[in-house]
User: What shape does this take?
Amino acid sequence: MGLKNIRAGIVPGVLATLLFLMPRFAFAAGAAPADTTAWWMWVLGLFVFTFLLGIVAVIAGVGGGVLYVPIVSSFFPFHIDFVRGTGLLVALAGALSAGAPLLRKGLANLKLAMSMSLIGSMSSIAGALVGLALPEKTIQLALGGTILGITVIMFLSKNSAYPEITKPDTLSKVLQIYGIYYDENLKKDIDWQVHRTPVGLILFTIIGFMAGMFGLGAGWANVPVFNLVLGAPLRVSVATSVFVLSINDTAAAWVYLHKGAVLPLIAVPSVAGMMLGTKIGAKLLTKVHTSVVRRVVIVLLAVAGLRALLKGFGI
Amino acid sequence: MKQETVHADKVQLAYAGILSKATTLGIILVIIGYVIYVFQLLPLSVPIDQVAGNWGLRASEFHHKIPLATSGWSSFSQAEKGDAFSYITLIYLGTVTMLCLAVSGIAFLREKNMVYTFFSFAQLAVLIMAASGLISGGH
Assistant: This one.
């Protein structure tokens, strides 16, 4: 038991140290002299990297988008504008692929998603416009702070599988936000409803803005808000988050597309690698220790967030 | 033990149907477009080496320096170029959700659910606005 704990702590620790030091002599976009590496090596490296990221993301229970932007912008030579544009497409492609089965099973709820995403998509457009207008250092600082905040949320958050809502709020009744789904664990139908809808709307406005600004998929924030604030069951929250993400990221992605912040050379291998990785990750899900992988992801995020902060400070 | 029952309504099933088909088509198009691009099966607007040599620049500086045909709708005017074609396939991914929203809007209208008919079309309008480039000052 003790040995297990030590091992679980050592793996992320060693990884963190390596990642923190490695870019200084290996990648380091900003610090490196003229890049003499052939373009196809970067592209191939990106594909392999996002493939691995996709596997890790699924096992750790996070969207690939939130890992992609901080890590790729830290360790690859692409400007953060292109990384953010690609990050949105990575998250969007993943959400589009995952969407249909979730809707058919009745796990995702279109009404819950639509009522939150209308305002969220408007704020994600605003976030994208602000993000592309701000100086790079400011973006790195804000990204670093946000990623470190997400790390803390991931570390502390405790989801509630079946929150009990005794009294739905008036707005949720007007918006017909309630439903029923078949729970495979309990082998029975679960009725659900939500409360605190106005608070949810405010939070989704903020989440949309941040997703657009940093090119992050926002599953890390959507799920806790659906689950812990609105009181939707965890499975419904995870599935519905995919749809909010597909709508909000579409809105922000258009801004990046129009601003020329998407390069197919980078975007396609990232999307393909991430999608392939998430499929493999889903198959490995039952065979690996998710808690260790989750710890590794938290460490990865912390390192990437810290590096973004340092870049922002010009260090 | 209860048998699994599906609780998806007609609108959700309609949305899922179009989403599934449009996404599969999108993935195929994106891969085909990329193969055409990197293997240079069509002429390029800018050599790949030149793109790679400048991908560390801000997007605005990049396009100021390099006339790459990958910025908004203007890429359609150079669709015969491999890089523009690959970019257009990515643009297609941005239209999938809009297509689904149009389908859900019509389905809600048929059900006379005016609240979500409004939500579907209002959401579609927001995305069309973003796609038009009017908000972002696109090309």
In short: Residues 13-21+40-312 of chain A form one domain. The first strand of chain A starts at residue 178 and ends at 183.
